[in-house]
Design goal:
By secondary structure, this protein is mostly helical. Helix content is 76%, strand content 0%.
Length: 162
């Protein structure tokens, strides 16, 4: 999520923001599209940052032992175990934040795409074909349904872990 998908989707969102900002008259809801896509970028970048923090808290005993000179005694074993428990709890919190921000970013991205796809108000002579508005509105509905599906997926998978 936070290492590959979120940065890729954030970059796509930024590119789409650039397209809309250059020619807002070509979009029915340019301002709404820009707002939703900017929020998506923010949530996806938050996902990246949260993923970095989560990774810092996740380590194994074998990864950390080389940092200790000599062998561990009973006192240092207890401290080591307590530190590991604390870090695992922090890791779980950061992973949850990563997941929440990623899913929020996906939902906002799909809503931004839906707003971008809405056909601009145009004269009949500007239309590519008479069916063009129907196809564009169909695309809006599909993008909105994908946002709803992502929300349902997020909600359903979140319940499994509890």
């Amino acid at each position: 999520m936070g290492e590959v998908a979120a940065p890729l989707l954030a970059g796509f969102s930024i590119a789409l923001i650039g397209v809309i900002a250059q020619n807002p008259g070509s979009f029915r809801w340019a301002g709404l599209s820009l707002l939703l896509l900017t929020l998506a970028v923010g949530m996806l970048l938050l996902s990246v940052q949260s993923g970095f923090h989560a990774r810092q808290m996740y380590w194994t005993r074998d990864e950390l032992l080389p940092w200790f000179a000599g062998s561990l005694n009973e006192t240092s074993e207890k401290a080591f175990s307590g530190m590991h428990t604390t870090h695992l709890q922090l890791w779980k919190k950061w992973v949850d934040r990563t997941r929440r921000s990623y899913n929020s970013g996906i939902i906002l991205l799909m809503l931004g795409v839906a707003a971008t796809l809405a056909p601009p108000t145009a004269q009949a002579s500007d239309l590519i074909s008479a069916a063009d508005p129907l196809f564009r509105w169909s695309a809006v509905v599909v993008a909105a349904l994908l946002a709803v599906a992502e929300f349902i997926w997020w909600w359903a998978t979140g319940k499994e872990g509890k």
